[in-house]
Amino acid sequence: MDRMSLRDFSVGFTLIELLVVLVVLALLLTLGVPSMQQLVHKNRLRAEAGRLLGAINFTRSEAVLRNAPVSICPSSMSSSGEPLCTGVYADGWIVFSNADRDRVVDMGSDEVLRVFAGLPAGYSLTNRSGTRNLTDLISYLPDGSSRKNRTLQLCSPPGVAVAPLSIVINIIGRPRLARDWGQCASV
Predict the structure, then answer these.
(1) Which helix (H) or strand (E) holds 27?
(2) In total, how many domains does the chain have?
(3) Across residues 104-115, what is the average pLDDT?
């Protein structure tokens, strides 16, 4: 036998080397998957908070632009097609011109400006203490003020250890994003 044939036979992994690699891979997956899931929920929470903050800013700017009251309310119009202010914000929301500042989209005088889909399954939008789902109508006047302080808290699904994000609206009407502003509880 020559040297080349012996050398080709010894190339490869041993069973022990393969088992060590599999153990290291299993440890990495065991430690990495939960933190990766937490990162996914944290990013999704931030994206949904940004989407709601954008809708509130749009509502405020439209009130100033139109020189008329504009409101945002919970609505499942994205799935039902009906412009009704019912339900909770987790089901979706609409922005509409609201001349009489009520919870009704009047066919003659009001106009639906934007429709937003609901939150992903498991996510909730509550008050600051986390004791109830939000159903409030948020109205902006032509001067851009809302004349009421509010906190809308976005919570991740139960069992996920992600800090809540809150949208805090001051009495002047300026919304801002705040971290750890309240408590998420089961509602």
Answers:
(1) helix 15-66
(2) 1
(3) 91
